[in-house]
Design brief:
Layout (H helix, E strand, L loop, with lengths): L1 E6 L4 H10 L3 E7 L12 H10 L3 E4 L5 H10 L4 E4 H12 L3 H27 L11 H38 L4 E6 L5 H9 L16 E7 L2 E7 L9 H6 L1 H4 L7 E7 L4 H17 L7 E6 L7 H12 L6 E6 L8 H11 L8
Parallel strand pairs: 1-2, 1-3, 3-4, 5-7, 5-8, 8-9, 9-10
Antiparallel strand pairs: 6-7
């Protein structure tokens, strides 16, 4: 499907990668400036150009207000419009396997649509033309009531899952098995690291968000066992709606005895810095602090300036997180320095007390 992409200069690489995950072909790109049209977000000249190009999809890699999305849908008829949140949810839905992930995606989608419905109901009362949902006032009000009931049910079900998960993790603690969770930006090689440490062969490709539900495996660390968890990936400038929707999945890291943060060392220094600080900020948002943290700078097999990246990592992490147990340059592809990863984890977990 042909796509026109709008993104900020700093977000262009990430936006293209996300769009390509859905196999959309970008036929035209525009940069989002500091100011946007309050009515449509984009300029009316751009709207005319889009109607002339007749793409299948328009992706605006930013968060649109309900009125902007509705106004755009009226101007770009028969063209799908996805803002950043909708794009992410569509990608998440592709990879969701576990019930929990599917429920979280549905919840986020419904919450996103509630303000749209309210705005359309307001418009219908004023006799204005309808937007993406169509229908009259009473149909829209019935749909809004359904959304609210379904949101309540989903919240209750996710709370139940959270309770069950907590009990399961507590039982693991009782068995004396420490847990290590792998965190990091999506597509940095988290699952590859998981595979190397666990000896498994979980799906790995260049698509974004291939891990939507935590993967777990028992691993050997210097003769002792631990549980390794591969979590859902972070994104830069993650919308609050996504953090909320996947809080249950991400918050499992709170039960870990140690954390591994994977950073793509092959990216340029600006992206490296942004990715690094974005990951630390998200960890703060979900309440992760005080747990031993091992930083892995992955993809050193294709990195020329690894010494620069190590120095930068030391600079960035200082006074931002404690305790940091090490910064290890690794290659999941060639398995370089993986033995050092195991050694650091052994020391962090005081692994001897878990041997049985």
């Amino acid at each position: 499907m042909n796509c026109i992409l709008f993104s900020k200069l700093d977000d262009a690489v990430e936006a293209k990668a996300l769009v390509s995950t859905l196999n959309y072909k970008i036929i035209r790109e525009y940069k989002i400036g500091e100011k946007n049209n309050p009515k449509y977000f984009i300029s009316e000249d751009k709207i005319k150009q889009i109607n002339s190009d007749m793409p299948d999809v328009v992706v605006i890699f930013d968060t649109l207000k309900p009125r902007q999305l509705i106004n755009l849908s009226l101007q770009l008829k028969n063209i799908r419009i996805l803002d950043k949140i909708q794009l992410l949810l569509e990608i998440f839905a592709l990879h969701a396997g576990a019930k929990e992930a599917k429920l979280q995606i549905e919840l986020a989608k419904l919450k996103y649509e509630v303000p749209l419905l309210r705005d359309q109901i307001r418009r219908s009362k004023l006799g204005e033309q309808q937007g993406p949902f169509g229908g009259g006032k009473y149909e829209l009000e019935a749909l809004l009531k359904y959304h609210k009931r379904r949101i309540s049910r989903l919240n209750n079900e996710l709370q139940r899952i959270k309770t069950v998960t907590t009990l399961r993790l507590e039982k693991l603690k009782e068995r004396g098995l420490p847990q290590v969770t792998i965190l990091g930006y999506t597509n940095v090689g988290k699952t590859s690291i998981f595979n190397v440490l666990s000896g498994l062969n979980k799906k790995v490709d260049n698509s974004m968000f291939t891990t939507m539900s935590p993967k777990r495996a028992s691993i050997d660390i210097n003769g002792a066992k631990a549980v390794l968890v591969d979590s859902v990936g972070f994104i830069m400038s993650i919308p609050p709606q996504i953090i909320e929707a996947f809080h249950v999945t991400l918050s499992e890291a709170k039960f870990s005895d140690a954390l591994i943060l994977v950073i793509d060392a092959s990216s340029d220094i600006q992206i490296f810095t942004k990715m690094f600080m974005g990951s630390i900020n998200i960890m703060r948002q979900i309440g992760l602090s005080g747990k031993p943290l091992l930083l892995l700078l992955n993809k050193i097999d294709i990195t020329r300036d690894i010494d620069v990246k190590i120095r930068k990592a030391k600079e960035l992490i200082q006074n931002k997180y404690e305790p940091v147990i090490g910064i290890v340059p690794v290659s999941a592809k060639t398995k370089q320095n993986i033995s050092s990863v195991r050694e650091h984890l052994s020391q962090a977990l005081d692994i001897k007390k878990y041997i049985y």
